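Aim 2, interim progress: modelling of the protoporphyrin IX containing FE-bound target.
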Amino acid sequence: ADSYPFHGAHQAGILTPGPADKQSAACYAAFDVTAKNKAELADLMKTLTTRARFLTAGGTPENLGIGQPPPDSDVLGPVIPADGLTMTLSVGSSLFDDRFGLATLKPAKLTPMRIFPNDSPDPAWMHGDLLLQLCANHPDTIHHTIRDIAKHTRGAMQLRWKIDGYNSPPRPSGTGRNLLGFKDGTANPTGTTASDLIWVDDPAEPAWARGGSYQVVRLIRMLVEFWDRVSINEQENMFGRRRDSGAPLDGTNEFDTPNYAADPKGSVIPLDSHIRLANPRTPTTANQRLLRRSYNYDLGVDQNGDLQAGHIFTCFQQDVQRQFETVQTRLINEPLVDYVQPFGGGYFYVLPGVADTRDWYGRALL
Ligand code: HEM
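Predicted structure of the complex, ligand included:
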């Protein structure tokens, strides 16, 4: 689509558009807040709201008058197109430290991202007071947006880390592929199943947080040169799906449902395959499902001449412990760990939606 509504009970960029038809370009940018007190933080939130409301709708930038710098970079020309832009703003646990007096209002499950066995954490790529997820139809729109935001929020926040993402269209059909060549996103929850798994609606959470969601970002390098030397058989057993079609190993079409009950020993779909560990499809694990909305990244070349590319894993859920951490814990020693290297990311809380033209991000919190 050309544009997505900015106002609503929930922020855009999660279910609108959803993982299956998400925009092809993205950026994840984490910021440190440099605003000095709660009033300045509220001003920052109001500015972010105004910019998001304008940029996601598009239009002609307001002229600042003679002698002032131009109102816009003109990267997108004199009239800014909406270009399918969504901005999704979330907050990290560090925003709730002493600086702003918000400690008692922290979402109940929000902590710094845990370090898991097999992680290679790089502090330069981790955490942040705020996270902006930008998605749009073209990469120049993403660049324009981050530049506009940085310009308007100078002095109140600064970039901590930023990574650009892209996704692939269906090839030849169905769900897009990740950089290991496998269709990625097939078994995502949809419809009301998805809504019921992601939007926070727990009386144990602070009232302001209802309608938000926990967002996990994991920057996961893929050792693609190494992967490309693995036999197709072994690759497919690691995921539990066919590479060409995306079908589970006991099926023929991408959206066939794997039947684990008929294969208790894992002779068709291995017990330690990624899909079987991630979602064993038993009644007791149904509420551990999460919504994935990931992108590919490419950061060029490392010192050894190897490609520095991989996966910006992103998922949304009601409860980061019940969902992401439970699933991630089951995946700790999956065979895939030899081919991937998580090095960054963070845990964030997506603020509830901006309701109307008078509302702003985090109004009920601040
Ligand atoms: C499924 C790839 C990391 C959770 C899948 C599928 C692929 C895949 C190809 C099968 C198709 C699909 O249903 O989407 C990857 C790669 C990863 C990665 C390449 C890392 C580089 C993770 C992580 C988690 C996760 C960190 C969560 C902790 C899931 C879940 C499913 C899934 C829940 C669906 C299983 C089902 O319902 O059948 N992944 N994944 N994945 N993955 Fe991952």
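The chain has a mean pLDDT of 97. The chain is about 20% helix and 20% strand.
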